């Protein structure tokens, strides 16, 4: 009640007071409503208890509105801070990825494995897979990480089907899991893998990595051993298939989008030309792969393979 009285004393008086509620001024019902307003006003003013209750109700309503405003503003601030926090984490993650800090990146993103953010989840899938690929990772740990990566990629895709990266990493992780589930599962998953790579390219035609991976898909089925092809024919009415020419087209397209973006793309251009018996162009691309500045363990392995293939040229000539 004391609060109500303080609010009452703070209200402006005289001509500066805020106007009362506006009443309808139309012909019908105008007089009756004005009379009703005066009677209710007189009733309240003539009854101190009713007047105090009315004033207290008004004060509480005012406080309720103020509380709602404070809560609403706090919610906006919290949501803004949350968005800023996610963006900050993504910046840190991308910096660590570009710096080749695989373990630090995994440690950072593992803190947010329960996140609902697709951008965080597909990066966590990538980080899990990268840890699995390290030479120091045991076979048991590798298997766990491969399945873990698939789960993160799947969740990322569920959260945002318009994310080209989620489609790309989901396809990559399905492919990795195939190594543990046998030839039948691997061939069955091939259609799904191709579908998600194609969707990733559709969503982002400038992503050289997705284009390169589609090239690998084609190369893999072009060089499929005869016994695997026979199994595929027995299991599926129309087994997946491709050609070296198709693979070459994707590798060149990736190179056009982002020249020298990946040592393996250079290596596979050389190997595909070898399959097509074009030694001159094979030597050109293998030399580029051998001379590629190594930033990762994979780059070093590719340099070695390219040098060995080039040495094979020299021995035959």
UniProtKB/TrEMBL annotation:
It is found in: Cytoplasm, Cytoskeleton, Spindle pole. The keyword Cytoplasm applies. One of its GO terms (molecular function) is microtubule binding. Transmembrane segments: none annotated. Pfam families: RMD1-3. Its main location: cytoplasm. GO terms for cellular component: mitochondrion; mitotic spindle pole; spindle microtubule. InterPro entries: RMD1-3_a_helical_rpt, TPR-like_helical_dom_sf. It comes from the Eukaryota. The keyword rRNA-binding does not apply. Keywords: Cytoplasm, Cytoskeleton, Microtubule, Repeat, TPR repeat. Interacts with microtubules. PANTHER family: REGULATOR OF MICROTUBULE DYNAMICS PROTEIN (PTHR16056), REGULATOR OF MICROTUBULE DYNAMICS PROTEIN 1 (PTHR16056:SF16). Belongs to the RMDN family. This is Regulator of microtubule dynamics protein 1. It comes from Tursiops truncatus.
């Amino acid at each position: 009640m004391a609060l109500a009285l303080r609010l009452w004393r703070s209200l402006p008086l005289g001509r500066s007071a805020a106007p009362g509620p506006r009443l309808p001024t139309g012909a019908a019902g105008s007089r009756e409503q004005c009379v009703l307003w005066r009677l209710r006003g007189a009733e309240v003013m003539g009854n101190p208890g009713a007047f105090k209750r009315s004033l207290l109700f008004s004060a509480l309503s005012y406080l309720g509105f103020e509380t709602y405003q404070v809560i609403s503003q706090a919610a906006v601030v919290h949501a803004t801070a949350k968005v800023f926090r996610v963006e900050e984490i993504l910046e840190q993650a991308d910096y660590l990825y570009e710096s080749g800090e695989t373990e630090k990146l995994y440690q950072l993103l593992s803190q947010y494995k329960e996140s609902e953010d697709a951008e965080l989840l597909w990066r966590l899938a990538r980080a899990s897979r990268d840890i699995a690929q390290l030479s120091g990772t045991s076979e048991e740990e590798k298997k766990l990480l491969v399945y873990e990566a698939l789960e993160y990629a799947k969740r990322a895709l569920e959260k945002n089907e318009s994310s080209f990266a989620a489609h790309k990493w989901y396809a990559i992780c399905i492919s990795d899991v195939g190594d543990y589930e046998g030839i039948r599962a691997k061939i069955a998953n091939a259609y799904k893998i191709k579908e998600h790579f194609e969707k990733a390219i559709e969503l982002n035609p400038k992503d050289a990595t997705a284009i390169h991976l589609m090239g690998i898909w084609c190369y893999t089925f072009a060089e499929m051993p005869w016994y695997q092809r026979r199994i595929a024919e027995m299991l599926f009415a129309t087994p997946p298939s491709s050609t070296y020419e198709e693979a070459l087209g994707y590798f060149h397209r990736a190179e056009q989008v982002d020249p020298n973006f990946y040592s393996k793309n250079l290596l596979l251009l050389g190997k595909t030309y070898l399959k097509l018996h074009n030694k001159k162009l094979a030597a050109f691309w293998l030399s580029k792969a051998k001379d590629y500045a190594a930033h990762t363990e994979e780059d070093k392995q590719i340099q070695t393979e390219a040098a060995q293939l080039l040495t094979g040229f020299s021995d035959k000539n």
